[in-house]
Specification:
mainly alpha, three-stranded antiparallel sheet, 9% strand, RNA-binding
Length: 477
Amino acid sequence: LARHTGGSFIVRIEDTDQARKVEGAAESILESLRWLGLDWDEGPEVGGDYGPYFQSERLDIYQPIAKKLVEEGHAYLCYCSPQRLEEMRAEQMRRKEPPRYDRRCRNFSQGERLKLEGEVSSSVVRFKTPLEEETRFCDLLRGEVIFDNSSLDDFVILKADGYPTYHLANVVDDHMMEISHILRADEWLSSTPRHILLYRALGYEPPQFAHLPMILGEDRSKLSKRHGATSLLEYREQGYLPEAMMNFLALLGWSLDDKTEIIGRDQLIEHFSLERIGVTGAIFSQEKLAWMNGTYLRQLNLDEFSEKAIPFLEKGLPASISHPLPEEYIKQILPLVQERIKTLGDLPQLTDFFFIDELSYDGELLIQKGLTKKSTLEALRVSKDRLDKLVPRIVVPPEPQDLGLMVQLEAFNTESLEGALRPLAEELGLKTGQLFGTLRVAVTGRTTAPPLFQTMAVLGRERCLKRIQAALEKLTA
RNA sequence: GCCCCGGUCGUCUAGAGGCCUAGGACGUCAGCCUUUCAAGCUGAAAACACGGAUUCGAAUUCCGUCCGGGGCACCA
């Protein structure tokens, strides 16, 4: 929305819970945004006129505001212990009542306050929610939403440790940072009346609100750790492309029209609009993401694909393979697997036979349906013999003056291999599938692999002959 | 329990009263292509939660029911 309208996209880290502080969490959020290409105009690392952008560094802004709210009668100090609150809630639940603060500290006299301050070591600041009437606001996606103030309790705005709660910090910062639009998940909708009340008490003009549909797990509940990978960075590690992830995420709750599935960043910015956001929660479909990633992967040219693929091969191939991996060889392999993968993480296991010296596989796999050990051996022997005879030739142009164009034909290429092996099947009285199947296992160690001739051409003459020999030995042993 | 928000194929969605015999995509199934696996192409099965009301006409408006989700912390 910011990019579409020419506004500013601001990143603010809301780190106001000391108890849940996790080392490196903020950095990984920023890294996720960077990975997706969601660059920000103001915030950590880039700065801006409204900093600091970490709420933990803004305590001296929130505290005086909380104090002022107390002085003006919009808030009050609460001395109730966590234990008391917990017991109270438990009792309320038992009686099937809504769990909420009973406002014991709301109407203490000055004398009672002084007495309690002497006895109690810590206190929090609570907002004095109006007891009656209702709070309404207009959600850009859902229209007018109305809450009875009587259903709200006196929520904490400043904790005992001097940190603000989300409610206070968010309202104060959105005002001070001149935020125009709050686009946040649905789960915040029921907190919004509290925020409206706070804006009002502080004399601030509230921003526009749009509560977005949530991303759900397979069981339709709020997406969480137990639903599997929930961190963007995990998807990066698995070999998803940021462009695919961005595209997929954008279509969860938003659509361009009745048919567009693949849409790039620029087009997204150009066409994005609040009006086309839906209101129902969307299940995060791994399968569709995988499909989409596949289509993005297939669009890459060889250089791009190879640049992205190499780190995954370096990491995923057996350690015994010598590193660094030869780039030219890899560039021959990659086109054979590009349309066969859904993530870059699929690469190592799909291509390892290109790198491993000694294949290990069950010799029985060599014997194709309808063949015997004997006929398989025969097929392998004859094949090896034919391939042995495929040697490089020099083609000399007929006109002497064209000698500079003399080309060397690598006889061990896709065409020559096909030219040699296809007729061979008939010669041996085999179906092509039978002969090729046997050779595929001999040369790759598996029953499914990229196209045989291309695979053999990339492996090269020596490796293929060696592997067929190994297959013969495997069957004779 | 109380409050709020929702409900179109299994999933993501199109649908702003007649264009809807409800469109697209993923997935599924079948066929084509084919040396295996993919990719690609073609086709099929598959949905308006239910009940009333308004209207000549309702997936679209209103009400109720049911179902689902979210919130109800010194978490965000």
